[in-house]
Amino acid sequence: MRPPPRTALGLLLLLLLLLPPSGSDAARKPTPCQRCRTLVDKFNQGMANTAKKNFGGGNTAWEEKTLSKYEFSEIRLLEILEGLCESSDFECNQMVEQQEERLEAWWLQLKKKYPDLFEWFCVQTLKVCCSPGTYGPNCSACQGGSERPCSGNGHCNGDGSRQGDGSCQCHMGYQGPLCKDCVGSYFSSLRNETHSICTACDESCKTCSGPTNRDCLECEVGWELVEEACVDVDECAAETPPCGQTQYCENVSGSYTCEECDSTCVGCTGKGPAKCKECVSGYSKEGGQCADIDECSLAERACRRRDENCYNTPGSFVCVCPEGFQEAEDACVPVAEGGEWRSPAQLLGLGTPAACKGELDSSPGRPPCNPAVDPGHQLHRMQTEAQGRGQYPVEVQRAGWKVEAR
């Protein structure tokens, strides 16, 4: 190996290598300081990996003597250098090749005088980084001093690099050029010449002097001052409800939410059919909640045609002639030759007769019939609208089913 270069040419070539590329790729590429720090970190890791290396000879005395020489040997240095870069990492390998002599000089001659490789290599020699707490071309001290930048409550812009302006980017709750002042929703729990601690106010406070709702200087929106403390405003208890007619109000800390009433309700005071003010058509109060009216079981016949079957549906009913019969003016009559029987599924808009053969099932969330689906098909839910036929036609809205290819 050759002695370390003394001309500026080698340093210039390295700086060109370390400089980030121009254009859109620059934001994704590491900075010169980051590249140098990564190389130093890998070098230090290589030193750790090769420390107290066992030669496997079994001769302890010989190993101790050999290891004392190996610790500062060129053999160990070469092992460290070989492990710095992946074979596919061109930039890393090129940088190691450019700086091999400098690293060798540090290893053999300067290591004891400059034990911190990062400080010697990246800060003093290549001048692409600064020591912690300093920034910029001349490594000036950050705001608040290099020992405790930004009072320990923020980040110094450019800290440790040759970039930035040294200004403070304060952590949450802090403000000011040195990050020593508290923002409005925080109060100062400790402050002296070198330290400042800001603590969050209670959620009810817009500004405060302490941690509880009794320390508020001003209440937050959605809270009001009651007996020298900020308490939650119950918007749901207002004389004019804030929610729509088909919604109910739920109070939450500092605000409220509007939730939809149950589908069986006409107006409600809370969640579920038991909280309905009134019931929609086809439902009535039963056991304290809105339940479906079984029109087919009422004393007064729901279906007016002779021989017509009544099928109850959620909120309504449907009248269907038996299989083999069709509707006439006032009765179900045999289907004429070439005619088509319309199944309950058809009348409910549930698909083809093949989709539904059997009794209707009004259980919520289940198919309204016992399906007989052709192989390769399946039942899928869909929203349907059908026209029930009773003494007065009623529009039915329910979850329907249809046959669909798999």
Automatic annotation (TrEMBL):
It is found in: Endoplasmic reticulum. Disulfide bonds join 170-179. Its EC number is 5.3.4.1. GO terms for cellular component: endoplasmic reticulum; extracellular space; Golgi apparatus. Residues 138-180, 292-333 form the EGF-like domain. Keywords: Calcium, Disulfide bond, EGF-like domain, Endoplasmic reticulum, Glycoprotein, Isomerase, Redox-active center, Repeat, Signal. Gene3D superfamilies: Laminin. One of its GO terms (molecular function) is calcium ion binding. Residues 1-26 form the signal peptide. It catalyses: Catalyzes the rearrangement of -S-S- bonds in proteins. Pfam families: EGF_CA. Belongs to the CRELD family. This is protein disulfide-isomerase. It comes from Sciurus vulgaris.
